[in-house]
Design a protein that fits this description.
two-stranded parallel ribbon
Length: 113
């Protein structure tokens, strides 16, 4: 009988906790997506067993997913595809940011009078 297990990727190596603007958010997302994961010293026994016995691991194409799979079982066959990504983080376009900024300035000017 085939069994399917869903396992989240490991903890990201990106540890930035600084405040960022919406303009900087896109750069942060790109760094996060291109970052690897830290190697966990301890894993839940059930996770270890499932991955050790897996005949195939399917991951997204993101570095953290591929690296997590390889850390858990470097010998297993693996398929990576963008189809298996989680929901993408939303990124505001520069045009939308400009509109929001203009509206905020308009409101601030009205409140000044």
């Amino acid at each position: 009988m085939m069994e399917i297990s869903l396992i989240r990727h490991g903890k990201s190596e990106l540890i930035e906790n600084d405040s960022i603007s919406c303009l900087e958010f896109q750069q942060w997302v790109e760094k996060y997506d291109n970052c690897g994961v830290t190697e966990e010293m301890t894993l839940p026994p059930e996770t270890k067993e499932k991955v050790e016995n897996a005949k195939l691991i399917v991951t997204s194409d993101l570095i953290r997913s591929i690296q997590s799979a390889r850390l858990l079982n470097p010998e297993v066959n693996m398929i990576s595809n963008p189809l298996y990504r989680e929901t993408e983080l939303p990124i505001l376009s520069k045009d939308l940011i400009q509109i929001i900024t203009e509206k905020r300035l308009e409101r601030e000017q009205k409140n000044e009078w």
